[in-house]
């Protein structure tokens, strides 16, 4: 291994006939980081991943991996490995043969192939499964074979294309933790594609949110959640109530905001006085059965009991709001009035 | 640096030019007398270099220049654009020169003024041999390597080379012969340009005459062919629909037996059905005699002509329509019909307003298939035609008959070709995309609607007698070989089998003394030899179509499937016209038979490959590629092992189809290479029906055995849990 490599996109565009799948995007993945490409289906994230792999060639722009320009290099000549959504395990080969495949076709000596394949299987906790056929393994085990088959080559970059989408919900949480642990243990540069924002928040060093063929925002999970750069990102990462607000004044980077009778002081994030958009996380809204200071009166339209928390839909002066409340012991009945305040965190101005 | 495949092809090109005999050898491709009989010193055996140096064939010299060009790329970056340009220039230039001198100088001398300075008095040359062919291939791969460097097939050398190979082969063995027909239609039989003669022949009354409408006289063969094709298309579609409905939408008990019908057209040698019809309904046929005795009528020859051909074609092609329409009827989602019924439609209304309209594209498709098959059919009209001339047989008689008129054959071929191409084009264009297949990948738990009672009874009334008739016909074929002379003398005998297939104990072991053994072994041999390239080329093409993307893919697909639409008679005529003279001098060899089978049957392999490959997850290939395997390794280690059943199916079906082929073969056989079907044709023409039928029965058994063996092997292999319904997919391709 030549040590972890960086991945750099410079104004990369991919067109399929008339359709622009990826529109002049640029980003850089630091060596050893796990970066997630996140976005709704059709946003261009998988195409971007396939361009890193070389399964698609860019129509314009430059792709650089570990300082080497690979834009025109075909897939075989790039030092990347990929874990596919369907795992793509070769059904006619045993688990060991699958894992050894990349080494065998690279003409690595046989003894070394066997040793490295065994070590890779050990690494994913499947030592002793080598003689089985992929069809004799469970979905989670197949997924781990796919990971072992990719890491055994010690690639510059490891790619994951929605690796958890074929697993059930409980397994998904466990496997994503395993992937993250393995990635950190090996210190391998990794690009991970998913449409599940929770998964992205859980595993990533950084997240690149894509929408309609362009990058909507790039940052750490916390930056994306707390400081969404646009209406789309605020809505896509975690739920958010997006409401119209008004900035009365901006002073020292702090904005005096007024929304539906509530006065707030928030980081201005570059906004100027005038109409503005406010993103309010459902958990940042507090509902009280009795009136209190700085609270506005709302009407509970709908109340749903979900075991661990309550979900409400309320009609407020700011408009209809979606609220998550942990106080399940004293639920507010639908049709009643309540008073609402905002928590200090989880409310942010969204740049227009 | 030169990459490995390029270096290999460069070396092969040079070796071919320096070491291998340049011209076609009279002693056959696999004879090595040239090594001992003079080699470089002999005018006929010398490699290109010595042809130039010692035998005054100076026109070959420029090829060396083009072979040398790629050497300039040594030391340049591997996939740079400059290298690409250089390779394309070398390859294209080399191929161009090869073709120019090949067509410009032939066995009669030089015909192209441009080349005259290079050709000494009396200089001439023969067809391409090992050396020339390999050099041509090397030039071809220079081009594809160069284009790959420019981004063809995403820079993949193996893919680019495969595309180039398929395109070149299809061009050489489908388009070039067909174009030769076109050009020879424009000439008189001495080779001079004669456009008026062409028009004269094109509007000949024998082709377009309408005398039969006004009473008295015959109609032209073009009209006859069209009328027959339309009627056959209609009858096979309706019968096929009835069969499909009975099998899928009723509680009929013998469904499995009906389904076996679909295998019949694959294993039926030509003439068989026609012969059986003659034996039953001919002048001295069993049924005719019976009815004549009963009613006291004079036994007539009514079966010869339109009724007989239509009858035989309907028998022969109904199973094809049946096969297509089973898929169509099953493709109508039961949920649609259930939805209609919950909306208060009764069974009859549901059928006419929902089910039938949804099947419409499938019905049109079945009709066009029957139409094309009927136009191309050669065997049945030959046996049953009487005075009813159709284009396919007219072409045959124009070439082999007393008239020997190449130009007329070419003109007839053009008319026939334009009919079939129009139908093929309509089928691809209009129906290719407009299928209402309503079954998605998702489970559909609905129950298919049972037919309304009246319709069900109608279907039974049609299907049961027809199935019985088909059974009788095939039993007849088995039985007919065991009687003295059908219709006159029904004493049981083994005479025909003994005559054809006797083996006697001679001085030096067994002697295959039967009259049919010679053609039988030749047929088995040629069919087996051609099965391998057919399957290989078909699957390679399928892989390119399913897995690769390149700019002209639709045109590529159309071109490769085209040979299916070109009637065999036309392939036969065009091959003798195109490959009788240098540069490709193949007539009279076994190779021309093999080549004609390969290109006639390649679409079978393509379809089998497409059906199986679309079931294989595409990310398997991509996974292999990301694991450092190049596309050649990927094909070898991942695709081929998973395609094993499809390979087997393609091999067996191309073998079987080669055994039953007649229409192209009849033009291409020679004394050394007589095929079973042409031997049978000879017996039929002599009225020796017993022997012909005995031979057909043997062929049917051989083919049944081959197919049975294949299904047994496919059925007995296991691949983890993934043993998809490949066998059935392959069956549907024929």
TrEMBL record, chain A:
Gene3D superfamilies reported in the protein's UniProt record: 2.40.50.100, P-loop containing nucleotide triphosphate hydrolases
SUPFAM superfamilies (alphabetical): MOP-like (SSF50331), P-loop containing nucleoside triphosphate hydrolases (SSF52540)
Keyword Disulfide bond among record annotations: no
InterPro entries per UniProt: AAA+_ATPase (IPR003593), ABC_SmlMolc_Importer (IPR050093), ABC_transporter-like_ATP-bd (IPR003439), ABC_transporter-like_CS (IPR017871), Mo/tungstate-bd_C_term_dom (IPR008995), P-loop_NTPase (IPR027417), Transp-assoc_OB_typ2 (IPR013611)
Domain of life the protein comes from: Bacteria
GO MF term list: ABC-type transporter activity; ATP binding; ATP hydrolysis activity
Keyword terms: ATP-binding, Nucleotide-binding, Transport
Chain ranges of the ABC transporter domain: 7-237
GO cellular component, one term: ATP-binding cassette (ABC) transporter complex
Family per record: Belongs to the ABC transporter superfamily.
Protein name in UniProt: ABC transporter ATP-binding protein
Organism of this sequence: Marinimicrococcus flavescens
Automatic annotation (TrEMBL), chain B:
CDD domains: TM_PBP2
Keyword Repeat: no
Residue intervals passing through the bilayer: 7-25, 58-74, 86-105, 125-145, 157-179, 226-248, 260-282, 302-326, 409-426, 458-483, 526-546, 558-578, 590-610, 646-669, 689-714
Any Pfam family the entry gives: BPD_transp_1
Localization annotation: Cell membrane
Membrane topology: Multi-pass membrane protein
Keywords: Cell membrane, Membrane, Transmembrane, Transmembrane helix, Transport
Domain ABC transmembrane type-1 intervals: 222-427, 520-710
Keyword set includes tRNA-binding: no
Family matches, as SUPFAM superfamilies: MetI-like (SSF161098)
Family matches, as InterPro entries: MetI-like (IPR000515), MetI-like_sf (IPR035906)
Gene Ontology biological-process entries: transmembrane transport
CC per GO annotation: plasma membrane
Main location: membrane
Family: Belongs to the binding-protein-dependent transport system permease family.
Protein name: Iron ABC transporter permease
Organism of this sequence: Marinimicrococcus flavescens
């Amino acid at each position: 291994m030549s040590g972890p490599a960086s991945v750099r996109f410079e104004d990369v565009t991919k067109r399929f006939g008339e359709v622009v799948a990826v529109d002049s995007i640029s980003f850089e993945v630091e060596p050893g980081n796990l970066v997630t490409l996140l976005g709704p289906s059709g946003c261009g994230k998988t195409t971007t991943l396939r361009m890193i792999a070389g399964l698609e060639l860019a129509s314009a722009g430059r792709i650089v991996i570990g300082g080497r320009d690979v834009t025109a290099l075909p897939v075989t000549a790039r030092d990347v490995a990929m874990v596919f959504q369907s795992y793509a395990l070769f059904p006619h080969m045993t688990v060991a043969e699958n894992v050894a495949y990349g080494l065998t076709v690279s003409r690595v000596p046989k003894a070394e192939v066997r040793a490295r394949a065994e070590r890779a299987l050990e690494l994913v906790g499947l030592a002793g499964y080598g003689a089985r056929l992929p069809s004799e393994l469970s979905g989670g085990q197949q997924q781990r074979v796919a990971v072992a088959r990719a890491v055994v080559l010690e690639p510059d970059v490891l790619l994951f294309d929605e690796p958890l989408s074929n697993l059930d919900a409980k397994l998904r949480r466990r496997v994503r933790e395993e992937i993250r642990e393995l990635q950190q243990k090996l210190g391998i540069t990794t690009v991970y594609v998913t449409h599940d924002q929770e998964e992205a928040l859980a595993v990533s060093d950084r997240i690149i949110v894509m929408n309609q063929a362009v990058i909507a925002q790039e940052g750490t999970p916390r930056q994306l959640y707390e400081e969404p750069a646009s209406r789309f990102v605020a809505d896509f990462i975690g739920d958010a109530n997006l409401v119209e607000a008004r900035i009365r004044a901006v002073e020292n980077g702090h904005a005096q905001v007024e929304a539906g009778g509530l006065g707030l002081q928030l980081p201005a994030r570059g906004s100027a006085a005038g109409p503005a958009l406010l993103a309010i996380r459902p958990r940042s809204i507090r509902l009280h059965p009795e009136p209190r200071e700085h609270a506005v009166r709302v009407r509970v339209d709908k109340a749903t009991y979900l075991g661990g928390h309550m979900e409400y839909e309320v009609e407020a002066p700011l408009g209809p709001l979606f609220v998550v409340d942990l106080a399940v012991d004293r639920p507010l009945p639908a049709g009643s009035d309540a008073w609402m305040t905002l928590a200090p965190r989880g409310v942010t101005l969204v740049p227009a | 640096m030169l990459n490995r495949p390029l270096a290999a092809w460069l070396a092969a090109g040079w070796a071919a030019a320096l070491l291998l005999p340049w011209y076609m050898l009279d002693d056959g491709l696999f004879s090595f007398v040239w090594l001992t009989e003079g080699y470089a010193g002999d005018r006929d055996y010398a490699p290109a270099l010595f042809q130039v140096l010692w035998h005054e064939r100076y026109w070959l010299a420029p090829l060396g220049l083009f072979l040398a060009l790629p050497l300039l790329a040594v030391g340049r970056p591997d996939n740079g654009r400059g290298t690409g340009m250089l390779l394309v220039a070398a390859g294209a230039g080399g191929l161009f020169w090869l073709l120019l001198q090949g067509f410009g100088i032939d066995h009669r001398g030089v015909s192209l003024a441009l080349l005259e300075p290079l050709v000494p008095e009396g200089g001439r040359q023969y067809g391409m041999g090992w050396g020339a062919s390999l050099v041509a291939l090397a030039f071809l791969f220079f081009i594809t390597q160069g284009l790959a460097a420019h981004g063809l097939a995403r820079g993949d050398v193996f893919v680019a080379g495969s595309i180039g190979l398929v395109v070149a082969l299809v061009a050489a063995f489908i388009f070039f012969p067909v174009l030769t027909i076109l050009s020879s239609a424009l000439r008189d039989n001495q080779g001079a340009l004669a456009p008026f003669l062409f028009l004269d022949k094109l509007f000949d009354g024998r082709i377009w005459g309408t005398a039969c409408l006004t009473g008295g006289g015959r109609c032209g063969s073009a009209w006859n062919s069209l009328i027959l094709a339309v009627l056959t298309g209609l009858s096979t579609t309706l019968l096929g629909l009835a069969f499909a409905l009975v099998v899928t939408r009723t509680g009929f008990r013998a469904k499995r037996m009906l389904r076996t019908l679909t295998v019949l057209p694959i294993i039926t040698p030509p003439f068989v059905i026609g012969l059986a019809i003659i034996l039953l309904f001919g002048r001295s046929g069993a049924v005719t005699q019976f009815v004549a005795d009963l009613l006291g009528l004079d036994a007539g020859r009514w079966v010869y002509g339109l009724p007989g051909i239509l009858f035989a074609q309907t028998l022969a092609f109904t199973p094809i329509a049946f096969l297509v329409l089973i898929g169509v009827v099953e493709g109508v989602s039961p949920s649609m019909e259930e939805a209609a019924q919950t909306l208060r439609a009764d069974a009859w209304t549901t059928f006419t307003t929902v089910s039938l309209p949804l099947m419409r594209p499938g019905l049109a498709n079945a009709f066009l298939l029957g139409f094309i098959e009927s136009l191309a059919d050669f065997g049945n009209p030959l046996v049953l035609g009487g005075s009813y001339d159709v284009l396919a047989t007219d072409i045959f008689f124009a070439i082999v008959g007393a008239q020997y008129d190449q130009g007329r054959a070419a003109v007839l071929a053009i008319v026939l070709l334009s009919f079939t191409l129009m139908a093929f084009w309509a089928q691809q264009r209009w129906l290719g995309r407009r299928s209402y297949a309503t079954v998605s990948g998702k489970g559909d738990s609905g129950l298919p609607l049972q037919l309304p009672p009246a319709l069900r009874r109608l279907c039974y009334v049609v299907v049961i007698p027809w199935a019985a008739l088909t059974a009788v016909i095939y039993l007849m074929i088995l039985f007919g070989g065991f009687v003295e002379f059908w219709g006159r003398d029904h004493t049981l005998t083994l005479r025909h089998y003994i005559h054809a297939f006797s083996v006697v104990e001679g001085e030096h072991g067994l002697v295959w003394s039967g009259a049919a053994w010679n053609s039988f072994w030749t047929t088995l041999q040629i069919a087996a030899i051609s099965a391998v390239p057919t399957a290989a080329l078909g699957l390679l093409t399928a892989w390119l179509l399913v897995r690769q993307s390149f700019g002209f893919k639709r045109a590529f697909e159309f071109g490769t499937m085209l040979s299916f639409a070109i009637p065999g008679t036309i392939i036969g005529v065009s091959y003798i016209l195109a490959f009788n003279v240098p540069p490709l001098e193949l007539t009279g060899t076994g190779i021309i038979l093999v080549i004609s089978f390969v290109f006639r049957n390649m679409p079978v392999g393509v379809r089998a490959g497409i059906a199986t490959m679309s079931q294989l997850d595409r990310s398997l290939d991509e996974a292999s590629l990301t694991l450092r395997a190049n596309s050649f390794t990927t094909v070898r280690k991942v695709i081929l092992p998973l395609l094993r059943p499809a390979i087997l199916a393609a091999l067996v079906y191309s073998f079987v189809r080669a055994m039953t082929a007649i229409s192209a073969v009849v033009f291409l056989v020679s004394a050394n290479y007589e095929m079973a079907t042409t031997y049978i044709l000879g017996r039929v023409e002599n009225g020796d029906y017993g022997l012909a039928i005995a031979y057909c029965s043997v062929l049917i058994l051989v083919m049944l055995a081959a197919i049975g063996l294949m299904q047994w092997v496919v059925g007995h292999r296991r691949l983890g849990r993934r043993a998809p319904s490949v066998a059935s997919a392959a069956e549907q391709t024929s």
